[in-house]
Amino acid sequence: MPSPVPEATSNAAPAARAVIDARDLVKTFDGNTAVAGMSLRLAAGEMLGLIGPNGAGKTTLFNLIAGSLKPTSGEIWIGGLDVSQESPERRIGRGVGRTFQIPKPFLDMTVLENVLAGAQAQDGETLLANFLRPGHVRRQEKLAIDKARTLLEFVTLSGLEAQPARVLSGGQRKLLELARILMADPQAILLDEPAAGVNPALLEIIIERVLSLNAEGKSILLIEHNMDMVSRLCSRVVAMALGKPLAEGTPADVASNAAVIEAYLGAVA
């Protein structure tokens, strides 16, 4: 069972509870350190950017927060609970969804079926419910289909719902993945380089949809190299390099930080 947040013992006003609170995370692979003491706090309703050169450890940090990797040390708190050892499925149930830098849809399934794959806690997945409560299962499935179609309309893919996912472009696959994770109603969404390989027209759609989700109250944690996109979406940015925190502040302050510039130039060199 996850541990609750301990009671405050000081007279100071408590800080607002974070949706995600990663504390002193370390992750090593065969003696190599990919994340070396990173802390990151995502507040409710915030859009936070995470930047850094290739190899900085950003995606490893995402994998730790999402649960596909377990930390070597450190803690991950979601909604005030320590979930450091919980599975990705449990974390989705706690309201954290994530996309991937390279989407991997089920290519032979239709676009609609791919979105439906993101539905959680469907009674029709159990044999017993199909025999004992067939009417309930049918109603639940209809609600899921209606919701999936609404989400496809939201991401501008409704006209392709009957097509196999293999026909989608790279940008459309990123929109499809966003629709799929929204089936689980996450309160926090981890976006891993949504602009990578996307044409300008689809990128504008992605930006508009992310802004709309944030306006609805969803918290967004964004990995992105496109600093124009980061500046448009995020009021706060965290930079990391070599698995460690490097700088934090507004997009303009972080982009002009000497250590950040040196890290990027060193990566290019």
TrEMBL record:
GO terms for molecular function: ATP binding. Residues 20-267 form the ABC transporter domain. The keyword Nucleotide-binding applies. Transmembrane segments: none annotated. Keywords: ATP-binding, Nucleotide-binding, Transport. Belongs to the ABC transporter superfamily. This is Branched-chain amino acid transport system ATP-binding protein.
